[in-house]
Amino acid sequence: MLKRYRLMYVLLTLILLAIPTISKAIAKEVSIAVYEYSPFIGPKLDRGGIIIELVETIFKHAGYETRRVTMPLARAIATSKNAGLDVIPGLWRSPELEQQFLYGKRSLLTTPLGLYKKRANDVLLDQDNSGRITVAIPRGYSYTSENDLSHLYHVSVNSDLQALKLVLKGRVKFALTSLEVAKHLFMENLHLSETHLELTSPLVGVRGFYIGISHQHPNGKRLLDDYERSFSELFSRGLLQQIVQRWRLTVKAPISKSR
After folding, report:
1. CA 193/CA 135 separation, integer angstroms
2. Domain ranges across the chain
3. Which one, 13, 107, 172, 186, has least CB within 10 Å?
């Protein structure tokens, strides 16, 4: 009889010790892409950047554990097609991407887009060698159809930094970029300065940052539903707005319904 009680005690102890491991094994986990798009997203930014903090807060409130996966945006988009990645944060809406991704209903942030050019007191080349007025557009920005730019010749570049450098060198007249990204680059790169570059008027438009979940994801609809429910709860309490305010962005980027 004593041996039986001892055996039962040992079994009960093992079960109690195993509960945390079992709970962790069955816990919901969501993998989130982190790529370089400072100051909004970046592996070296505090908390991964404001967009990563918002997305992780929303999923954690929904009962998920979050796991960051650092990779370039282009690779993240390709990986998510095979359901190798759960969520890509910070996507802009476009007809092309909407064919690949389920989108959140509301944007996390909005950012104004504008055209930068050399200041009037600098030597300014209005046209390239073929007589065309050119605008450098970073890859990813080309997903948007900007009617205001239809009369310009578009040159695709790898980054916002490269676009601004081309303007500074007189290779192109305009660079399309987010105002917040431009201000960040001015601070990080001493050779770029608002004393040499200026923002044209009016602004090109406003774009919102959303999360994207591949249409091929086996649990994509449920994942998005959990995200939307958690988003609404946190938004109604003002908690997401508090996160945005704490980051003290120089360009206001409020959460909005859709952009």
Report:
1. 19
2. 29-110+207-247, 112-206
3. 13
DSSP, collapsed to helix, strand or coil, labels residue 176 as: strand
Task: Identify the band that residue 71 occupies on the pLDDT scale cut at 50, 70 and 90.
Answer: very high
Q: Read off the tokens for 258.
A: 């859709």
Look at the alpha carbons of 225, 231, 234, 237 in this order and tell me if their dihedral is positive or negative: negative
Q: Which CATH class is domain 112-206?
A: alpha beta
* Fold adopted by 29-110+207-247: D-Maltodextrin-Binding Protein; domain 2 (3.40.190)
As a whole number of angstroms, the distance between CA 35 and CA 19 comes to 36
> Among 167, 184, 185, which residue's Cα sits nearest to residue 176?
167
Task: Answer whether residue 4 shows pLDDT above 70.
Answer: no
pTM (2 d.p.): 0.80
Percent of the chain's residues with pLDDT above 90: 50
Distance CA 143, CA 174 (A): 18
Structure-token pair, residue 233:
């709860």
